[in-house]
Design brief:
37% strand, 4 helices, 326 residues, elongated, four-stranded antiparallel beta sheet
């Protein structure tokens, strides 16, 4: 215990001697501090001379003057000084989207791109894009003047309706004799005969291939004996029978020896909206486009075109629309 106490006294003595040494060294250094400071000699400042009052007055006058800045114009359009102009480099030319020409994405106008803030307008195929996913491209919306970024505003669905082909169910009649009883032949889609005896009017028809019952679809209204000049025979029998087709409520004239096709014609449409769907409709019948609530009617059908008619909510006829092949 006595040995530990002596060690601590020795350690404290050493630390006291070190502190005294450091203090003495610092005092020594402070004795020469004033000699290390140097005095800076500054040259006296020259006088400014006479103040240019005229220049001062002119400058003061300019500071108080109000300037009305007018924006420059380009092609009759103001160009704000605090706004940038949307200019696109297309090839080797600069295209200003705030002027009509040149068009950045012809035939779409620059105004349409800017007004509707079309996304990806820098893309060369921007006309084929569909920002609102309504099934109509930017180009189609531009042509119809609809909003390309509002799915509820779009061109008519009939813009995507095309005629694929016309088909027919043949129903061919021929007046085969000009003597009582008058023979009328059904040559297609099957073969059958009907014999008509006056007096007129007289109902007639042909056997149903399934029930074997005669369906009196027609009414013979009258018969007229006719001969026409013929360069070979001298005269030719061109007698006529007038009949009423109850299926179509139409009057038909049969000429002896000449086939008359009373075919039911159908239109096969393609509805190309996001995906391709087919619609088949008989002439004179109503039909619907898939996913579209409006009812339409097939008015006419030819080889290369068709005419359809929309139906208003009250059931009255609406707009007639021509449909062509794609």
């Amino acid at each position: 215990m006595q040995k530990k106490s002596n060690f601590e006294k020795t350690l404290l003595t050493i630390m006291a001697l070190v502190a005294l040494g450091v203090s003495g060294y610092l005092i020594y250094l402070s004795q020469g501090f004033s000699e290390s400071l140097s005095e800076r000699v500054v040259a006296p400042r020259k006088e400014m001379g006479e103040v240019p009052l005229t220049s001062v007055q002119e400058a003061t006058k300019l500071l108080g003057q109000v300037f009305n800045w007018a924006s420059p114009t380009k092609n009759g359009k103001p160009v704000p000084l605090n706004k940038s102009i949307l200019v696109i480099l297309k090839g080797d030319s600069l295209v200003d989207l705030y002027v009509p020409e040149p068009k950045l994405r012809d035939p779409i106008t620059n105004e349409f791109l800017v007004k509707n803030t079309i996304p990806d307008f820098l893309s060369p195929n921007v006309g084929d894009l569909d920002p609102d996913d309504d099934g109509f491209t930017n180009l189609e919306e531009f042509k119809r003047g609809t909003n390309p970024k509002d799915a509820k505003e779009h061109p008519p669905f009939t813009d995507h309706l095309f005629l694929k082909e016309r088909t027919a169910d043949d129903y061919i009649l021929k007046l085969n004799s000009s003597q009582d009883p008058y023979q009328v032949i059904l040559t297609a889609p099957r073969r059958d005969s009907a014999y008509i005896q006056p007096p007129f009017p007289k109902n007639f028809g042909f056997k149903d291939p399934i029930t074997r019952q005669i369906n009196e679809r027609f009414e013979a209204k009258g018969f007229a004996k006719k001969d026409i000049p013929d360069p070979v025979l001298g005269t030719k029998d061109a007698s006529e029978m007038t009949i009423l087709d109850r299926a179509t409520n139409s009057t038909i004239v049969l000429v002896k020896g000449v086939e008359k096709n009373l075919a039911d014609y159908y239109a096969v449409f393609e509805f190309r909206h996001k995906e391709v769907k087919e619609v088949k409709c008989k002439k004179g019948a109503d039909f619907y486009i898939p996913g579209v609530p409006t009812k339409f009617k097939l008015v006419e059908i030819e080889e290369a075109n068709a005419l359809i008619e929309s139906t208003k909510p009250d059931g009255s006829p609406g707009e007639k629309l021509p449909i062509t092949k794609r």
